[in-house]
Write a structure and sequence with these properties.
single chain; 412 residues; alpha/beta; Rossmann fold; 2 domains; five-stranded parallel sheet; 10 strands; 46% helix; binds 5-phosphoarabinonic acid
């Protein structure tokens, strides 16, 4: 398989030997100090049992028009990214709807109305089992399933992915006997795409999860090479760190392929939640070009110089469209034009003082999705360690929950 490639366009970075030392220290810290949070780190080289995933996903595809996936944050952003990237834009047999990621009654009621005449299955995903957005949606859905399929049979259409031993959802599984899948205790939500959390929804959509795993395995090998000169994962973490230390506060992350939009949201959560603490961290913003050049392009080119861009360049498109016209576009493929837009924008933005990191992937495929997921997970953990923050906690997220509970319980 062709490899991915990383290129950096910006001020040259000196003291590379210091950087080698920094990353070696970070890698060591990751493996020793955070040993209880790195179940994902060597996951691609462990035996993966996909038999149960295959059986359940085949069953869901056979008996459902619509699959509902209830989860928030790391419990859905990865599968949402994979689904958008790897499925067709329009022709999919199984419709997949995400729920339980907001408190919107308008949205949930519309979903309930929409599915009333359809055959439906539900996957509920929550590691802690106590996230309010997801558990409230599950309450409504459970009533809906009981009404539709009856007190006994409704359970055949509900699947739960949660912690192996702990939490309210695991207790519910034990009491009510839903079919369940485990989230390993040493893998947190945003690092869980390559576990049942991401793989079951993707398999339900007919995506080849073994191929995803093969890509992740290749990334595992490449991202463990102990040299900043040949390890692009190290380079990505270090360049971000360098830029952060040189007055960049915002990372615009995206691609010229619209199917990367949700991948950008996954990246945003992974990096935002891992790094944004103790007053530190880059602010990650997902972008799709050239679309967003017509909204943000002006700001990027001429606004404050506190940002840089990370662009996923897709070398080859799946579909080829050749332009016929009597100007200089004649006989060019649309994908060629897309990559020319990338080259032109790269020149313009770097001239405008916006450094760029370009990560090139040969094509969009299951394999490269798995590769990129692992690549960014590892780069993220190392980036956070370079910043001297814990890559695996999110204490700040608890504050809104506490305030919300206070209002619910005490009215203030
Ligand atoms: O990355 C994380 O750990 C979080 O974003 C969680 O995934 C999110 O808060 C949902 O938590 P849970 O899976 O416990 O419902």
């Amino acid at each position: 398989m062709e490899k991915i490639k990383l290129e950096y366009y910006g001020n040259s970075i000196n003291d590379l030997d210091d950087y080698q030392e920094k990353i070696e220290k970070a890698e060591k810290k990751l493996r020793v100090e955070y040993k209880n949070n790195i179940g994902w780190l060597d996951l691609p080289v462990k035996f993966m049992d996909v038999d149960k995933i295959k059986v359940v996903s085949n069953k869901i595809r056979d008996n459902s028009d619509v699959l509902l996936i209830a989860g928030i944050g790391g419990s859905y952003l990865g599968s949402q990214a994979g689904l958008e990237l790897l499925r067709s834009y329009f022709n999919n047999n199984l419709e997949i709807i995400f729920i339980g990621n907001s408190f919107s009654s308008d949205y949930l009621k519309e979903v309930l109305d929409y599915i009333s005449n359809k055959e439906v299955s539900l996957i509920v995903i929550s590691k802690s089992g106590k996230t309010l957005e997801t558990s409230i949606a599950f309450k409504f859905l459970k009533d809906f399933f009981i009404n539709k399929y009856g007190e006994v049979s409704y359970k055949d259409r509900i699947y739960v992915i949660t912690d192996k031993n702990n939490g309210a959802l695991r207790e519910m599984v034990n009491k009510e006997n839903y079919e369940s899948f485990e989230i390993p205790s040493d893998i947190g939500g945003r690092y869980s795409v390559l576990t049942n959390v991401g793989l079951l929804p993707l398999a339900c959509a007919g995506i080849d999860v073994e191929e995803i795993f093969k890509g992740a395995k290749a990334a595992h090998e490449d991202c463990n090479i102990n040299s900043i000169y040949s390890n692009y994962c190290y380079q990505y973490a270090l360049i971000r760190h360098y830029l952060y230390n040189n007055n960049k506060q915002i990372e615009l992350f995206g691609s010229y392929e619209p199917s990367f939009r949700n991948f950008g949201y996954w990246h945003q959560q992974l990096f935002g939640e891992s790094e944004g603490k103790e007053g530190k961290g880059l602010f990650p913003i997902p972008i799709i070009y050239s679309t967003d050049l017509h909204s943000l392009g002006q700001y990027v080119q001429e606004g404050p110089k506190n940002l840089f861009e990370t662009i996923i360049k897709v070398e080859n498109s799946k579909q080829e469209l050749i332009i016929k016209s009597d100007d200089n576009l004649n006989n060019k493929s649309l994908h060629q034009i897309n990559n020319v837009a990338l080259e032109g924008t790269l020149k313009a933005h770097t001239l405008g003082g916006v450094p760029n990191i370009v990560i090139s992937v040969p094509e969009i495929s299951d394999y490269y999705f798995g590769y990129l997921v692992y690549f960014f997970e590892k780069a993220c953990a190392l980036s956070a360690i370079l910043l001297e923050v814990n890559p695996f906690d999110q204490p700040g997220v608890e504050t809104y929950k506490k305030e919300m509970l206070n209002i619910l319980e005490n009215g203030k």
